[in-house]
Amino acid sequence: MNLTQKILIGMGIGLLLGALYQWAALPEDHILITFGLDGVIDAGGQIFITLLKMMVVPLVFVSLVCGAASLGDSGSVGRLGGKTIGLYLLTTALAVSLALALALFIGPGEGVADTMDTEGTLSFAAKESPSVKDTLVNIVPGNPVKAMAEGKMLQVILFAILFGLALSQIGSAGAKVRDIFESLNAVLMRLISMLVQFTPYGVFCLMVTLGATLGLAEIGKVIAYFLTVVLGLVMHGAIVYPTLLVALAGLNARRFLLKLRQPLLVAFSTSSSGATLPVTLRTVEHEVGVKNRIASFAIPLGATINMDGTAIMQGVATVFIAQFFGYELGITAYLTVILTATLASIGTAAVPGVGLITLTLVLEQVGLPVEGIALIIGVDRLLDMLRTAVNVTGDMTVATIVARSEDQFDLETFNGAAPSSDQKLAG
Ligand code: ASP
Predict the structure, then answer these.
(1) Per-residue pLDDT, 63
(2) CA of 198 to the centre of ligand 1 (A)
(3) Considering only Cβ atoms within 10 Å of each terminal Cβ, which end of the chain, N or C, has fewer?
(4) C-alpha distance from residue 248 to each of 233, 244, 390 (Å)
(5) Which CATH number covers residue 364?
(6) Total domains in the fold of the chain
(7) Distances in Å between the alpha carbon of 92 and those of 130, 282, 424?
(8) Would you say the C-alpha torsion 160, 49, 149, 181 has a positive or negative sign?
(9) Is 347 in the pocket of ligand 1 (CB under 6 A)?
């Protein structure tokens, strides 16, 4: 059995067991709850996510230093950086526009107030969302070590790129440091391969918890909103990316998407593109065929700043909340939404649930009540899982397009058999 099959089985059995827990409604002090669900299973899920997170800061730092150093050598860092960031912004803006169009067409918020008791449900303590200016200023690390310790990814990224560029400019004087970083990179990739083997068990634990706590009734209440977001995510993943991939990279989109199974399943189960990063990076290099030079640069950057799925949720949510409260938004407001949601998605940390916090930024920009978030918070957990999978797909799509355009793409790997991680590990 290959790893993907094992992950799928872990997921299925996990969800089933979780649903059983929900159905059985055991008393809180039952041993199956205290020792099982809240004990071993919860611990298993947390350990899995923490193990993945453990990799993120070292991986982003080492990988970007290597990437920037080799790009700096060829003098292509500016062009490549511009191309990558430009594509990330473009796909995000496309995502919000698609979301707005869908939401306006479907009108998920119209008439909701008639069917739903809004009294008292609309209290939402908006957490402070950083302003656009703060987001920009906060990219510069006052202390890179502190930035790493606190996991401030944008700061780590900036420092790593500058460090890598400097390294590329000192020639042979930097050879030793470069070797060290190259070896560190190899060690980290190996470590990821080891951790990935635990995925089926980690995913199993996470899915049991999900199945045991998932409130289907909540989805029923805002079903139109939920389905509009899902439709937006599916269309973006199944139409927009494949179109870009075929048009800009001339690759078989179906083959591409099939190769993404593992990172997508991990993204779905962890709701964190940050935690998924190790698996994303590994897949893009070893399954898709993006050369390390591009992958090590584009993927950590994308995991941090590119969140198309999040932007889709924010676009639909904005229209939904406007319709719900009976606000009319004009064309300027929609353009503002496209701009702020694109920026908000850059400022969204790659961890669960943050997209909902940065949604306040978008709502405030167009003068909508942030309390509206209370309407959708109940279904956000599931949507977070789905949108994280789209976020990760976006990173891999852009990395692939950039790699193809730079002739840094291994067609043989791409045309080879889909996930071969088990064989690779065995070898
Ligand atoms: N969970 C998302 C991610 O990590 C971010 C969000 O939309 O909350 O990609």
Answers:
(1) 86
(2) 22
(3) C
(4) 21, 6, 19
(5) 1.10.3860.10
(6) 1
(7) 19, 23, 34
(8) negative
(9) no
**273 CB near ligand 1 (under 6 Å):** yes
Separation between Cα atoms, residue 110 and residue 116, nearest integer Å: 12
Using CA atoms in the order 283, 306, 188, 76, what is the torsion angle rounded to 10 degrees?
90
Give the whole-angstrom CA distance, residue 217 versus residue 34.
25
Between the CA of 354 and the centroid of ligand 1 the distance, in Å, is 6
Atom of ligand 1 nearest to the CA of 275: 4
What pTM value is reported for the model?
A: 0.86
- CB of 148 sitting under 6 A from ligand 1: no
17-29 per-position pLDDT tens digit: 999 999 998 998 9
pLDDT in tens, 85-102: 999 999 999 999 999 999
Report yes or no: 233 and 315 within 8 Å, Cβ to Cβ.
no
Q: State the residue range of the domain holding 284.
A: 3-426
CA 223 to chain centre: 23
Instruction: For a ligand 1 pocket test, name from 91, 233, 307, 316 the mutation site with the most ligand atoms within 8 angstroms of its C-beta.
Output: 307
